[in-house]
Amino acid sequence: MEQQLKAPPDVKKVADFLRGGGAGLKIRVGALNGKRVDYFKGKSAIKALLSPAYAKLKGVPKITTEEEATTILQAVNAFAFYLRVQRGGPTGSSSSSPKALQIIPEQLFAPKEYYAWFYEGSQWTTYAGGVLMIVILLAGVMFPLWPPIMRLGVWYLSIGMLGLIGLFFAIAIVRLIFYIITVVVASPGIWIFPQLFADVGFVDSFIPLWEWDLPKKKSKKKKSDKKEKSSSKGKSRAEPTSTQNGGAFIEEVEDDDEPAVSKPRGGALIEEVEDDE
């Protein structure tokens, strides 16, 4: 667009930052006039300008508050790098289909509004990738014209790659056979290169050299918690009702020959004796 060409360098750098992958801007896909476009929410752009990644940039306005970020984003909106849109319902039958977008005549920037991109960002990576693909295709087509030394080097390189792939499959087959043998001979079995298929680095895939195939132990905390709960329930059921209320109780004993004796909470005995007089 013509308005984008008139943008100052600092505003264009802000737009390049937001459009690039380093900003961490959450991009959504919508449908505008039957075409798919990328759009975002204003609040996400404000967070991107307040991030440490933006603070490391050079040649861009310094931003420390949300108000300053809103002002810069309004300036980027004024040069039509993105336009304010209204989001509607899904364009397809499923809820995951792109939302319908419509451009709003009144253009302003607000955190709760949505904005559709009309700027593709820096295209040097796309151009470089296209040139590289053309060079690779031409090199492949012109392989018979290569010097003998280069063709021999490519042949050795391809043989080396195939050898590494074959060695990997051979190690996988050998470790499986060895594990089956050790399961029968020395249970529970031994794995050679136990980290071979784990999500680790190349060197860590071969460390340790071997390992017993031990089952994973359950956490002891869960068992201890269950035991504590069961013991507390057993104790609560075994306690008599008379020991409640601070542990003191009153017991009355009746006998035909002896007078009634009562035991108060303090532990002293009170005995009633009839007077002879």
UniProtKB/TrEMBL annotation:
Swiss-Prot/TrEMBL keywords: Endoplasmic reticulum, Membrane, Protein transport, Translocation, Transmembrane, Transmembrane helix, Transport
Predominant location: endoplasmic reticulum
GO CC aspect terms: endoplasmic reticulum membrane
Membrane topology type: Multi-pass membrane protein
Xref: InterPro entries: Sec62, Sec62_asco
Protein's UniProt keywords contain Transmembrane helix: yes
Region (Disordered): 217-277
Keyword Cell membrane: no
Pfam families xref list: Sec62
Parts of the chain that traverse the membrane: 124-146, 153-186
GO process annotations (BP): post-translational protein targeting to membrane, translocation
Subcellular localization: Endoplasmic reticulum membrane
NCBIfam families named among the record's database cross-references: sec62
Record-stated family: Belongs to the SEC62 family.
Protein name: Translocation protein SEC62
Organism: Candolleomyces aberdarensis
